[in-house]
């Protein structure tokens, strides 16, 4: 498998060049994020940064790679999700309309071969569990869940972008290891290349998004990153033969998924509406503990690196060792989450969304 150096350099260069232009475009379109009590920024900021990542990624892919059906599905679904996000960033969409659009984008990739058809059987590597008619709802649920999970953690400068960058590199490494063990399929090979191109696009954008940010991802960017990672994980891990492979994408995307799960548990236990925004996410808690903006982001990056290395370790150890490792990892995560306070309701008053849509998650 050859590393797509040309595609990576092209994606990085385009992101560096295009992001300032997207920033100007955001001001002209009124895609601006205004401060409110739930947010940490104090001035109006341009959104639509995800458009720069999308343009860099899709241009590099179209100019340097062969477009297989799966790649075509990824690009088409990503285009729909970025358009949905642009409308949300500029005009605002109700949660129901946004969810409906996410479901449509997730469903679009299925006819192109991006589908979870089987789940590996933890009791027998030779007998995977066929999903049958459940494959479509499982695929849509996975893509929509990851899309919204990344959207929810986009609360500090560079957080969602950096988290996805680490996840993309981890996915590329895990799939590369898996394909060298079980044999390379075209879809898995594509997943490695596409993950690296996505990572390069994110790095170019982070030049302007890391603290202090000059532009935000916006819902368009955070949803696009989540959608892309969910789709790439299906492309890269769907044919893996080991039972633990079904857990690896969850570990790779651990921070956004866990933060979303903890938010649901926290709001349910606190008898608050599950979809009601609050200021008790992981990044909020770290800042409340006294960390600076930059320190909070770098701390979460560090946790992402640990989870990424854990995902890589799971691919090279035996199934029994992996099961023990997962139990230990889960215990440590739950203890740390409880210590920080993201699993229990806080004393803060919930933030009620303002009528103006110019908000940042």
Low-confidence stretches: 347-361
Q: Order of strands in the sheet with the most strands?
A: 1-2
Instruction: Give me the secondary-structure category.
Output: mainly alpha
Average residue pLDDT: 81
* E-strand count: 4
Percent in helix = 55-70%
- How many alpha or pi helices? 13
What is the N-to-C order of secondary-structure elements (H for helix, E for strand)? HEEHHHEEHHHHHHHHH
Beta-strand percentage? Answer: under 5%
Report the sheet with the most strands, covering strand number, pairing sense and barrel closure. Answer: 2 strands, antiparallel
Q: Write down the Rg.
A: 19 Å
- Distance linking N and C termini: 38 Å
Shape: globular
Task: Describe the protein in words.
The chain has 361 residues and is mainly α. It has a domain at 5-242. 66% of the residues lie in helices and 4% in strands. The strands form two sheets. A two-stranded antiparallel sheet has the order 1-2. A two-stranded antiparallel sheet has the order 3-4. Helix 6 runs parallel beside helix 8 (218-237), helix 7 (186-209) runs antiparallel to helix 8 and helix 12 (293-316) runs antiparallel to helix 13 (319-340). The two termini are 38 Å apart.
SSE blueprint and pairings:
Layout (H helix, E strand, L loop, with lengths): L4 H25 L2 E2 L11 E2 L2 H16 L4 H22 L4 H14 L9 E4 L2 E7 L4 H18 L6 H24 L3 H24 L8 H20 L10 H5 L1 H16 L12 H7 L4 H24 L2 H22 L21
Helix pairs in contact: 1-2, 1-7, 2-3, 2-7, 2-8, 3-4, 3-8, 4-5, 5-8, 5-10, 6-7, 6-8, 6-12, 7-8, 12-13
């Amino acid at each position: 498998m050859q590393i797509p150096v040309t595609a990576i350099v092209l994606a990085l260069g385009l992101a560096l060049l295009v992001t300032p232009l997207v920033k100007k475009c955001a001001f002209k379109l009124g895609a601006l994020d205004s401060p409110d009590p739930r947010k940490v920024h104090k001035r109006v900021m341009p959104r639509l940064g995800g458009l720069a990542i999308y343009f860099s990624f899709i241009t590099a892919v179209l100019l340097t790679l062969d477009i297989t059906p799966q790649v075509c599905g990824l690009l088409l679904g990503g285009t729909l999700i970025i358009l949905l996000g642009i409308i949300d960033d500029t005009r605002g969409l109700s949660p129901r309309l946004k969810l409906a659009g996410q479901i449509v984008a997730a469903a679009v990739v299925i006819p192109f071969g991006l589908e979870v058809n089987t789940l590996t059987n933890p009791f027998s590597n030779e007998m995977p569990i066929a999903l049958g008619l459940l494959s479509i709802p499982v695929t849509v649920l996975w893509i929509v869940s990851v899309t919204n999970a990344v959207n929810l953690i986009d609360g500090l400068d560079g957080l969602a972008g950096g988290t996805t960058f680490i996840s993309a590199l981890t996915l590329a490494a895990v799939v590369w290891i898996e394909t060298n063990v079980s044999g390379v399929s075209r879809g898995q090979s594509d997943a490695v290349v596409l993950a690296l191109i996505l990572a390069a696009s994110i790095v170019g954008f982070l030049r302007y998004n890391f603290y202090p940010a000059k532009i935000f991802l916006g819902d368009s960017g955070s949803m696009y990153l989540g959608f892309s990672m969910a789709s790439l994980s299906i492309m890269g891990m769907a044919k893996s033969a080991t039972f633990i492979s079904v857990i690896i994408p969850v570990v790779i995307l651990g921070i956004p998924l866990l933060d979303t799960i903890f938010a649901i548990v926290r709001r349910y236990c606190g008898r608050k509406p599950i979809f009601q925004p609050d200021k008790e996410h992981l990044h909020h808690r770290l800042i409340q503990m006294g960390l600076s903006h930059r320190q909070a982001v770098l701390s979460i990056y560090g946790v992402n690196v640990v989870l990424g290395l854990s995902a890589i370790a799971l691919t090279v150890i035996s199934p029994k060792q992996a099961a023990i490792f997962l139990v230990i990892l889960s215990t440590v995560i739950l203890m740390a989450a409880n210590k920080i306070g993201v699993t229990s309701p806080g004393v803060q008053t919930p933030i009620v969304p303002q009528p103006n849509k110019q908000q940042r998650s």
